[in-house]
Amino acid sequence: MPIAKRMDDDDLLRYSRHILLEEFGIEGQVRVSASHALVIGAGGLGSPVALYLAGAGVGRITLVDDDEVDLTNLQRQIAHTASRVGQAKVQSAAVAMGEINPTILVRTHVRRADAALLEELVPHADVVIDCCDNFATRQLVNQACVRHGKPLVAGAAIRFDGQLSVYDTRDTASPCYACLFPPDAHFEETRCAVLGVFAPVVGTIGVLQAGEALKLLAGIGEPLAGRLLMFDGRSASFDTLRVSRDPACPVCGQRHTTHDATPG
Ligand SMILES: [Zn+2]
To answer: CA-CA distance, 64 to 22, in Å (whole number)?
Structure first.
């Protein structure tokens, strides 16, 4: 198998428990190792995402977050430590990732994910994982993913509730984030800093995001595209809603209307 030659003996050992999975195999690992993941946010969701993607050997991981590690983060943001309070979150997370897997390349941006930065980074990513904590950034990330045809794994958690989905507009039936949560809607901006958050809910959603990202990169399983998964940490229950593309969506709808309206 010539493909195996791209992995050395250490890689074969390091990733053996994924390689042993029939669906994953060496080919899946080679795809994961050759991939580039863009992670927006290095907080409660971004921590497990960053650690799991590093452990799994995603070859290049770019982290974006403009915040610093604070004592109140340590309850749930498991990539950070007491000794790194005051450091940039992306740098703290990069240290944790490097300790798990020094063979991957981690790039960090101590910046807010604004439209300009996303326009620069999203085209180079194979998957984008949105782990941010605010509605405005989620919309910007979604817009960049739709524009560049990149799959988006978006998660959110507050109090005891979490949700996630995969938005992959390469599939014309799959909605984008804005099909479900229109940019002009007046959602109450809910922040952990105000309302609190049950730490394992953040971990649960973040781990599921890492799983969806790895499935997309390895080309295995059935991604959550077209389904919104909701988790209730009080009752430990999951619900799944079928969701579809909104033809009138201001983000992904117009593009298709434009295409469809072109006279043949
Ligand atoms: Zn849409």
So the answer is: 34
